[in-house]
């Protein structure tokens, strides 16, 4: 049955399914500090786990369309325009199923670029994939509508940080320098898969300028997030008793500040996708 399903689905469909499953695994991972998980809504009043899962499933056609666009072998500048529009269509689909709630804006951006780059550039390693996605992100998007500055743009300017655009343009260092090495190191240390994923999230949080945190709670909360994540890992990670205590302390601190690391959560989903893609690169997508 499984073999039949594999034969009848296209590479673009399979890639999109991998992206959706990474979003589902991120949403269900618990306990994540101040984020939506199996325990509850974290710092969000308008998000629930059910909404995150509905949103993830609704994005399958968006990721598939991006992979199919990449299969056409267009010049990179033309492909960038095309996926810009597909990304905006994906955001519209997300807002429609969530009743206007922003569940996955940053995830559409990061996972969309990665799915597209995996097909378009046929990279052979996780790092090459992240850098290829970064090159696409750095190209101009001439059809982007002139809109009021986003939350990310406003805090990026106010606090002099880069946010989601700069993270992508730099080739996603949060994924290939922090999330992925930590995920694999924690697995290697027999932390268990859920703890390894939590550790990967924390490794991303140690250094990310998460504009979601900055917008909701300001720079002091960003420092709390980065230092708190470091403290968990230094105490032995999520699998250790001391690390787990630090993790719950960080959860309380971020909840008290109403600070949700939504950007880090998106980058964890992107890390899980890259982890699953790497063994299939470049041809077995
Ligand atoms: C390039 C875009 C991502 C737009 O980026 P920009 O910074 O201009 O806009 P924002 O609207 O602020 O969205 C950025 C989202 O990215 C996540 N994020 C934050 N920091 C980082 C970081 N350092 N690195 C990577 N990613 C980061 C984060 O997303 C998560 O948070 C969202 C929930 O936040 P919340 O506060 O609840 O909701 P808000 O609506 O913001 O506030 P309230 O009104 O509720 O108070 C959730 O979505 C998570 O995903 C940031 O929110 C990109 O969107 C873009 O320009 N796209 C155009 C299409 C395109 O070109 N696509 C290319 C192909 S994919
Ligand atoms: N689990 C989560 N909770 C809150 N915001 C998010 N953005 C992406 N994943 C999220």
Automatic annotation (TrEMBL):
Q: Which purpose does this protein serve, as stated in its record?
A: Involved in the formation of 2-(5''-phosphoribosyl)-3'-dephosphocoenzyme-A, the prosthetic group of the acyl-carrier protein of the malonate decarboxylase.
Tell me the InterPro entries matching this sequence. Answer: CitG, TriPribosyl-deP-CoA_syn
Listed A to Z, the keywords are: ATP-binding, Glycosyltransferase, Nucleotide-binding, Transferase
Top-level EC class as recorded in UniProt: transferase
**To which protein family does this belong?**
Belongs to the CitG/MdcB family.
**EC number(s) from the headed UniProt entry:** 2.4.2.52
| Name of the protein in its database record | Probable 2-(5''-triphosphoribosyl)-3'-dephosphocoenzyme-A synthase
Alphabetically, the GO molecular function entries are: glycosyltransferase activity; triphosphoribosyl-dephospho-CoA synthase activity
Recorded catalytic activity of this chain's protein:
3'-dephospho-CoA + ATP = 2'-(5''-triphospho-alpha-D-ribosyl)-3'-dephospho-CoA + adenine
- Highest taxon, organism lineage: Bacteria
């Amino acid at each position: 049955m499984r073999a039949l399903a594999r034969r009848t689905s296209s590479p673009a469909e399979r890639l999109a399914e991998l992206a959706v499953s990474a979003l589902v695994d991120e949403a269900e991972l618990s306990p994540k500090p101040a984020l939506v998980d199996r325990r509850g809504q974290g710092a969000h009043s308008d998000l629930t786990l059910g909404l995150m899962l509905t949103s993830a499933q609704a994005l399958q056609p968006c990721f598939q369309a991006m992979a199919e666009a990449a299969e056409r072998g267009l010049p990179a500048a033309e492909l960038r325009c095309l996926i810009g529009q597909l990304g905006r269509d994906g955001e519209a689909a997300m807002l429609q199923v969530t009743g206007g709630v922003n569940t996955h804006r940053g995830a559409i951006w990061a996972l969309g670029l990665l799915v597209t780059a995996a097909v378009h550039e046929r990279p052979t390693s996780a790092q090459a994939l992240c850098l290829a996605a970064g090159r696409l992100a750095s190209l101009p998007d001439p059809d982007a509508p002139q809109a009021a500055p986003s939350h990310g743009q406003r805090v990026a300017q106010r606090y002099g940080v880069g946010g989601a655009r700069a993270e992508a343009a730099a080739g996603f260092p949060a994924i290939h320098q922090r999330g992925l090495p930590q995920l694999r190191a924690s697995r290697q240390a027999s932390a268990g898969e859920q703890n390894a994923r939590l550790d990967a999230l924390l490794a991303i949080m140690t250094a990310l300028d998460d504009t979601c945190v900055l917008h909701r709670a300001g720079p002091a909360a960003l420092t709390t997030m980065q230092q708190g994540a470091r403290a968990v890992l230094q105490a032995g990670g999520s699998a250790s008793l001391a690390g787990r205590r630090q993790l719950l302390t960080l959860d309380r601190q971020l909840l008290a500040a109403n600070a949700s690391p939504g950007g880090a959560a998106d980058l964890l989903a992107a890390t899980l996708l890259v982890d699953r893609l790497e063994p299939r690169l470049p041809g077995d997508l």
